[in-house]
Amino acid sequence: MYIRFNGCYYIAVIRSISNSNDYYVVHVSANGRKAYCTCKYHLITGKPCKHIVAVINELERKGFLETRTLSINRTSRSLPKPPSS
Ligand SMILES: [Zn+2]
Hints:
- This protein has one domain (2-70).
- The longest helix has 13 residues, at 50-62.
- The protein has helices spanning 40-45, 50-62, 66-70; strands spanning 2-5, 9-15, 23-29, 35-37.
- By secondary structure, the chain is α+β, with helices and mostly antiparallel strands.
- Strand 1 and strand 2 form a beta hairpin.
- Bound molecules: zinc ion.
- Zinc ion binds next to helix 1 and helix 2.
């Protein structure tokens, strides 16, 4: 999985398991509260798909999401703070 941070969103690219030429792009907001995916399931249902869940799990594992870091007192952050606007 490839993840990068653009200042507001984590952008992850996930290759399809069934078709290696296919891939999905997942956007997760810096605080983890908003997430979008380009797969059909998410576009049709609007529900969190397995791609979104996988990306959020990965971000939490790495301690990137604010929701996670907020629960830990005075933990230094390795990523720049997103703009407050
Ligand atoms: Zn998806």
